[in-house]
User: Which sequence fits this backbone?
């Protein structure tokens, strides 16, 4: 995969990041180098190696199905820029 | 070209909310209908520093479903992050399962309304978290967000693209709905969003093997809308293709008011989800003993139920299967037998009379105006010769229309009890014979077809209440 200006802008948009025009070349260069490193890593023979989904060598513990959380709505709503009738308000999204 | 020149291919993704007390990754309540955001904890809100912890019951429900459809239960399953921005998903990603879901493969066989059965293979069923709700009205041109639903456990059941009509797709969706409700995996409350379908629809010229370009119509929350959305898509895609254009692969929404599907805004659909393994959760490992323990707790499944019906009630294999494949109908049937005794009569009445009425009035078995107990009483009365089959239908119809609550009372009040008393039938039959000398003479001369005429006369005089078998016997005796 080649990282060019369009790829950088697309990634930034997906991640909701604002990138200034003068920063684009820098990201093209550094992301390309990361991909080069990954390509290098891919040349290692991993045929007998189990895929790792988590670096911690353990298994997930499961919790009992119990309601343990209390209503803290007022506390959480106080963090929001705007709220009304118990709802968080955000810029209008319509489908 | 016409519709007959095109073949339709449908696959469904069914999201079913799991019946748990708490959410999949937090101890918040999942109860429906609470005030906005009172069931949204720091974990559900995705506040910095919180960690998800997996609910054990969620795994149990998913495994129960997997066992019921004969699927593989993955001993090791892994959660992944699906990244996208939308205000009802406050973390900026959904935790789901991509490469190693809990359930893979499996199949179901469903009954089709037009007759016959259809077997549909499942690709997978994976666990994930539901999103919150966006409310668009009355907030000064802003959107209100309620995160009570965020983190509600979902099992997404994915079928192979193996259904070839909206009828098959709806029959399959109904079956899955019945199954998850019966198993206690979900509460099945469609009106509360407990089951939502995404329909993948494509068309191809009859005879081609390659699949056409598909569209995905999202979040259809009733069987009626599912049928309408699929039918709309089929017609739309055929029109597009027949006019020489190509179908765009896209996500669409069904507008139940306008009865049409339309594309979602491309900005939301052109997303690259950038999946990666969820770093906040370790792989989940399930051992054989746990799976077997769940298997032992499971209710009886279709195949076993059908075999039992053949054995216990002496039903034919097809009758037994058609009852067993419809869980509420099978339950109803068994209740009728418990109340009415005669399984053969119960089978006939449930599968023929009752189903015909349900279909005619478009009522589900759960809402049948005639209860299993009432039908059981009718059957008891037929079996002990108190009423004829014909009168039984009158009683059934009266119950159906709500004219009475009790079959026994109705029979009593309307004087519908069958006359099996030979002392009252004999004088009547003597009179009918003497009033019809011509027919009597012809009968005695060998025109035995006239028996029907005499039986008819007796039935007319008794308003259908005479026991037909007995009438035949007495007539045979007297006309000799």
Assistant:
């Amino acid at each position: 995969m080649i990282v060019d200006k369009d790829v950088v802008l697309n990634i930034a948009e997906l991640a909701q990041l604002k990138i200034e025009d003068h920063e684009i070349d820098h990201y093209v260069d550094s992301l390309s180098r990361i991909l080069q490193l990954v390509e290098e890593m891919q040349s290692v023979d991993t045929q007998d190696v189990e895929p790792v989904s988590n670096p911690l060598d353990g298994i997930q513990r499961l919790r009992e199905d119990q309601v343990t959380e209390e209503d803290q709505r007022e506390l959480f709503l106080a963090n929001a820029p705007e709220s009304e009738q118990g709802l968080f308000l955000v810029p209008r999204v319509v489908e | 070209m016409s519709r007959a020149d095109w073949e339709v291919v449908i696959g469904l993704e069914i999201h079913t909310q799991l019946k748990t007390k708490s959410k999949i990754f937090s101890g918040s309540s999942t109860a429906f209908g609470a005030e906005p955001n009172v069931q949204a904890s720091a974990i559900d809100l995705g506040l910095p520093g919180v960690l998800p912890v997996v609910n054990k019951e969620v795994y149990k429900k998913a495994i129960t479903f997997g066992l019921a459809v004969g699927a593989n239960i993955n001993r090791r399953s892994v959660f992944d992050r699906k990244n996208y921005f939308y205000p009802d998903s406050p973390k900026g990603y959904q935790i789901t399962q991509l490469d190693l879901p809990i359930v893979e493969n499996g199949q179901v066989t469903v009954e089709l309304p037009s007759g016959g059965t259809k077997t549909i293979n499942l690709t997978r069923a994976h666990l994930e978290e539901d999103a919150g709700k966006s409310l668009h009205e009355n907030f000064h041109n802003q959107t209100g967000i309620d995160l009570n639903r965020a983190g509600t456990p979902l099992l997404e059941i994915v079928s192979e693209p193996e259904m070839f009509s909206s009828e098959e797709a709806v029959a399959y969706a109904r079956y899955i709905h019945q199954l998850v409700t019966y198993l206690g995996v979900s509460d099945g409350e469609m009106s509360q969003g407990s089951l939502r379908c995404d329909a993948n629809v494509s068309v191809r010229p009859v005879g081609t093997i390659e699949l056409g370009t598909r569209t995905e119509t999202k979040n259809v929350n009733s069987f009626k809308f599912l049928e309408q959305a699929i039918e709309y898509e089929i017609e739309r895609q055929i029109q597009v293709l027949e006019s020489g254009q190509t179908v765009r692969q896209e996500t669409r929404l069904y507008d139940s008011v306008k009865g049409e599907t339309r594309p979602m805004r491309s900005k939301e659909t052109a997303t690259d989800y950038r999946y990666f393994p969820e770093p906040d959760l370790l792989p989940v490992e399930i051992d054989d003993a746990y799976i077997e323990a769940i298997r032992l707790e499971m209710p009886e499944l279709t195949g076993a139920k059908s075999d039992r019906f053949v054995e216990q009630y002496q039903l034919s294999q097809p009758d037994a299967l058609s009852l067993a494949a419809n869980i509420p109908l099978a339950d109803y049937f068994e209740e009728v037998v418990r109340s009415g005794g005669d399984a053969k009569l119960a089978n006939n009445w449930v599968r023929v009379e009752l189903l015909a009425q349900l279909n005619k009035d478009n009522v589900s078995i759960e809402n049948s105006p005639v209860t299993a107990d009432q039908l059981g009483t009718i059957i008891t009365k037929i079996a002990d010769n108190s009423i004829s089959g014909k009168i039984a239908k009158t009683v059934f119809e009266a119950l159906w229309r709500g004219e009475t609550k009790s079959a026994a009372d109705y029979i009593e009040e309307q004087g519908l009890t069958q006359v099996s008393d030979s002392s009252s039938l004999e004088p009547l039959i003597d009179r009918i014979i003497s009033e019809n000398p011509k027919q009597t003479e012809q009968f005695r001369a060998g025109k035995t077809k006239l028996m029907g005429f005499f039986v008819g006369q007796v039935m007319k005089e008794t308003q259908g209440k005479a026991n037909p078998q007995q009438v035949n016997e007495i007539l045979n005796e007297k006309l000799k």
Remarks:
- The interface with chain B takes residues 10, 14, 16, 53-54, 56, 58-69, 71-73, 76-77, 82, 84-95 of chain A (CB under 8 Å).
- The longest strand of chain A covers residues 87-91.
